[in-house]
Write a structure and sequence with these properties.
Elements lengths: L2 H15 L4 H8 L3 H8 L7 H10 L4 H15 L24 H7 L25
Helix pairs in contact: 1-5, 2-4
């Protein structure tokens, strides 16, 4: 599975779980409806800034999206034992408002993969934030 396919599928699932339309999310994310549709169908590769904007519109943490996509891709990869891990759903901020990822993990709201690493540019606290 390609990264863009997994990202698009996960974004579409999150949008559908919230019963929101493409138009609603595209307006909130300030991206064209057609482009968002292409991203959800895995036809376009979204930039990190665009992903951050879509995540904000869906009230998702970008790290939760990437964690879910990572697990989806891992479960689709051949595993030596022949079994696949189950796909997990994206945890939205509205599920556990005000909790950080570490607090969600302690609360049982999110099972974090200890091998997952997200690297941000030096000085950046949020994807798309100016560096320096």
């Amino acid at each position: 599975m390609l990264l863009r396919d997994a990202l698009g599928e996960t974004l579409r699932d999150a949008r559908n779980q919230q019963n929101r339309t493409l138009r609603d999310v595209s307006t909130a994310a300030n991206v064209s409806l057609g482009y968002l549709s292409e991203v959800e169908r895995g036809r376009k590769e979204a930039s990190s800034e665009l992903l951050a904007s879509i995540c904000d519109a869906l009230d998702l943490e970008l790290s939760d999206l990437l964690d879910t996509v990572s697990r989806t891709m891992r479960s689709d990869a051949p595993i030596a034992s022949g079994t696949a891990q189950s796909k997990s759903s994206v945890v939205t901020n509205s599920t556990k408002p005000g909790l950080s990822n570490s607090n969600r993990a302690r609360s049982g709201g999110l099972d974090l993969d200890p091998t997952l690493r997200i690297v941000l540019p030096y000085g950046s606290t949020r994807p798309g934030a100016p560096v320096g």
